[in-house]
Design brief:
- The protein has one domain: 3-Layer(aba) Sandwich (Rossmann fold), CATH 3.40.50.1000.
- 31% of the residues lie in helices and 27% in strands.
- It contains four helices and five strands.
Length: 118
């Protein structure tokens, strides 16, 4: 996540004066950036022997979040949070190309919970 920097003032923090670098956003939120942020030793401690990632995203840019993680398997679940049929139709092909499964509308996480039980 991004960390806010506050201007230092006597008696406490002042107004926001910036953010820590590098800024994380949907287009650089990936395994390589996370590894850089936490460091190689912490990364190994976090991942252990894991070789699979369950990636959940609600935008096309999120589909690349596991890039650079070095995992053997990445299962990508996309949430297309649209309710209007014409908006779904306009975006569904790109979501299907980017994600292994696409969940439409504002529904529960039951499908995802089921995957974690396998």
């Amino acid at each position: 996540s991004n960390w806010v920097r506050f201007e230092e003032r006597p008696g406490g923090d002042g107004p926001i004066c910036g953010f820590t670098e590098p800024l994380l956003h949907m287009y650089n939120k990936n395994g390589a950036t996370i590894k850089e942020r936490v460091g190689a030793d912490e990364w190994r401690a976090l991942c252990g022997e894991r070789s699979t990632v369950l990636l959940l995203g609600d935008s096309l840019g999120d589909a690349t979040m596991a890039d650079g993680m070095g995992m053997a398997r990445v299962h990508k679940i996309g949430f297309l949070n649209e309710t209007a049929a014409e908006r779904i139709a306009a975006r569904i092909a790109k979501y299907r190309a980017a994600f292994d499964a696409v969940i439409l509308g504002d529904i529960s996480f039951e499908f995802v919970r089921g995957l974690t039980r396998l």
